[in-house]
C-alpha cells in the first residue's frame, strides 16, 4: 500500500497499532509519556483535534500547519523516541509499531465529525470502557475548561457547541451499546 503524502493545511487521520496487534501502551504512565512526547515533537507542526490511546493502537486527527516534510519527520521522531523508550522499559528489541504510520486525508466536514465520534467512542467499542471518563482520549479535554493544546473551539464548532457535542456522542454510544446487546 502506497502511503499518502501529507500536505500543509489539510486534515488527517493518523493511526497505527503494535506490530502483530501487540501492546504498545503497557501502563497509563506509558500513555501519559506518549502524550507528553506528542506535545514536544508536534507542537507548532500540527494542530491536534482529537486523539485516543488504547493498549494496542492509537488514533489522532491533526491538521498539518508546517511543511509536509517537517511534519512527516516530526511524526517519525515521535514514534521512534516512544518505541526506544518502551523497548528499554520492557527489555525488548525490534519494531514496536507496524511499519509506517497510516494516514488518511479528511476531505469533508461530515467525515471529520464522524471520525471524531469514532475515535472518542473507541474505548467503548473495543474494550467496553466508559468513553466519557476515559483519560487517554481527547473527549474529556474538549469538554474541560482547563488549558489544552487541542483545537477545542474548532471541534466544538463542528458540533454546534458543547451541549450538542455531548448529545451526539451519547446518541452514537447508545447505538454501540445496542449493537453489543444484539450480539
UniProtKB/TrEMBL annotation:
Domain of life assignment: Bacteria
Entries under SUPFAM superfamilies matching the protein: Transposase IS200-like
Entry-linked SMART domains: Y1_Tnp (SM01321)
UniProt xrefs under InterPro entries: Transposase_17 (IPR002686), Transposase_17_sf (IPR036515)
Pfam families: Y1_Tnp
Transposase IS200-like domain segment(s): 7-122
PANTHER family in the record: TRANSPOSASE IS200-LIKE DOMAIN-CONTAINING PROTEIN (PTHR34322:SF2), TRANSPOSASE, Y1_TNP DOMAIN-CONTAINING (PTHR34322)
Protein name: Transposase IS200-like domain-containing protein
Species of the source: Mesonia mobilis
